[in-house]
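Narrative of accomplishments. A recurring question from our advisory board has been how the design workflow behaves on a single, concrete structure rather than in aggregate. To address it, we present the structure tokens for one chain from the evaluation set, followed by the sequence designed for it. No filtering or post-editing was applied between the two.
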């Protein structure tokens, strides 16, 4: 009898110790390299969560699409097979249609305007739209102002885009807009892009300088034009049920960790934008800097008319005119 009591006592002690020191591990991933504006986002997030929860939560970080592309990862978070992801909002409209309005070309004047909208009432209200779709959107991050690259010719004006085969994100607003510019569009997950450009399956793609540098696209693209045609938000997404199981204090810890991470993410984008043109010219790219963006907007007029019907001109103006 004594032995039985001893065994039960020991097993309870072990259980207690395990519980006391129990650590829950969660995965987060990105589609691009660790040495990037997105890598710094999830590395900072991981460090902040562990320190703010006293080590009770460990965030395992994965890079370069090793757990899948952005759309696939967002789907895994929605299903709960992956706890977290940090993604551009490219594929988001497939899960949260309300977010589509953010992807309209030339909607945002610049990064400062976009950050103000996302951190303000419009963006914060948009985050709540993710709840009913199985996500807790922890915070808006930043991918950056998207620019066009290709291997065929310099893009100085919209007519130079006609007939160009460009990879696009899996985003219906982008596809409609780029078709409106005469581009032949090929939606594709980012991890496939470098090879597609290398093999000439597509002539070009469009991405922020941060992504172009992180993915070394200068090795497979000759021409870069600073079109700044779309502001590309990023976002910290967590499986909603997993978030809801956290204590109130741990929920706060995850939210604050995301905020600190976004500060580092945006600072890295600013750094990349400051040095990106010189860096990519140094790598042999031909860079067109001063484009007349009004010409691109004018060419998009018919598509814009459609967008105003779809999203409501008032809703678009609310964002466009936000100060
Ligand atoms: O988030 O798919 C894209 O072009 C994204 O900008 C890239 O995955 C970084």
């Amino acid at each position: 009898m004594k032995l039985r009591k001893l065994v039960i006592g020991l097993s309870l002690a072990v259980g207690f110790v395990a519980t006391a020191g129990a650590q829950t591990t969660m995965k987060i991933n990105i589609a691009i390299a660790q040495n990037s504006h997105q890598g710094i986002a999830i590395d900072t997030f991981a460090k902040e969560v562990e320190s703010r929860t006293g080590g009770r939560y460990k965030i395992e970080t994965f890079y370069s699409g090793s757990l899948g592309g952005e759309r696939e990862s967002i789907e895994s978070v929605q299903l709960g097979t992956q706890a977290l992801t940090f993604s551009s909002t490219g594929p988001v409209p497939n899960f949260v249609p309300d977010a589509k309005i953010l992807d309209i070309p030339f909607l945002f004047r610049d990064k400062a305007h976009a950050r103000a909208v996302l951190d303000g009432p419009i963006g914060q209200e948009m985050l709540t739209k993710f709840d009913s779709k199985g996500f807790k959107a922890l915070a808006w991050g930043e991918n950056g102002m998207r620019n066009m690259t290709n291997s065929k010719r310099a893009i100085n004006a919209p007519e130079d885009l006609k007939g160009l085969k460009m990879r696009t994100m899996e985003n219906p607003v982008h596809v409609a807009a780029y078709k409106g510019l005469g581009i032949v569009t090929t939606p594709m997950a980012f991890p496939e892009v470098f090879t597609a450009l290398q093999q000439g399956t597509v002539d070009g793609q469009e991405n922020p300088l941060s992504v172009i540098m992180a993915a070394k696209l200068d090795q497979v693209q000759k021409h870069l034009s600073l079109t700044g045609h779309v502001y590309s938000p990023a976002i910290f997404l967590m499986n909603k049920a997993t978030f809801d199981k956290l204590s109130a204090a741990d929920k706060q810890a995850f939210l604050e960790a995301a905020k600190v991470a976004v500060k580092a993410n945006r600072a890295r984008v600013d750094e990349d934008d400051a040095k990106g043109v010189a860096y990519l010219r140094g790598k042999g790219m031909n860079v067109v800097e001063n484009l007349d963006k009004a010409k691109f907007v004018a060419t998009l007029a018919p598509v814009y008319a459609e967008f105003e019907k779809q999203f409501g001109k008032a809703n678009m103006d609310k964002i466009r005119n936000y100060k």
